Amino acid sequence: QVQFVESGGGLVQPGGSLKLACKASGFIFSRSTLDWYRQAPGKERELVARILPPGDTTHYADSVKGRFTISRDNANNMLYLQMASLQPEDTGVYLCGGLSTWGHGTQVTVSS
Predict the structure, then answer these.
(1) SS3 content of the chain, % helix, strand, coil (to 5)
(2) What is the Cα–Cα distance from 6 to 102, expressed in whole angstroms?
(3) What mean pLDDT is predicted for residues 28-43?
(4) CA 5 to the chain's CA centroid
(5) Among 53-57, 70-74, 80-84, 107-111, whose mean pLDDT is lowest?
């Protein structure tokens, strides 16, 4: 079945960077649109970044444009989210997914 497993979250100071990873399985990875969402406390789930086949077109939420980069490794069924210039408002659980399925997420906390 379709599965996603996120990793790479943690505690980082404002201005710092993190790279999240997501291992996918159970579907044709290279042909699928894939997303990173985040769930902040008390807020609705927000689409952060999306990558679309076949040419890997990317889309970003206005709040992360210029700071976050989504990428994929089709040979290894891996999805990534490189995050830079992190701010406290970036805190939340980050989930990867596609095909109406999501992982359990990885916690990112930005705090001094």
Answers:
(1) 5, 55, 40
(2) 10
(3) 93
(4) 11
(5) 53-57
